[in-house]
């Protein structure tokens, strides 16, 4: 397992879980957190 993959996976899980449970540190930015996770994963794969 790669650190970038684990970090992207953790961010994606937090963003999706924020749709069901309100995390105060994410707020209403679940989409942007999920986009950051995708960009982190895409940057590593390049």
Strand elements, count: 0
Rg measurement, Å: 11 Å
The helicity comes to: 55-70%
Strand count, sense and barrel status of the largest sheet are: none
Form type:
elongated
Average predicted confidence as pLDDT: 88
Q: DSSP strand (E) fraction?
A: under 5%
Give the termini distance in whole angstroms: 17 Å
Determine the structural class based on helices, strands and strand pairing: mainly alpha
How many helix segments? Answer: 2
N to C succession of SSEs: HH
Low-confidence sequence ranges: none
Description:
The chain is mainly α. It has helices at about 5-15, 30-45.
In short, what is this structure?
The protein has 46 residues and is an all-alpha fold. It has helices spanning 3-17, 30-45.
Write the layout of secondary structure elements.
Layout: H1 3-17, H2 30-45
Helix pairs in contact: 1-2
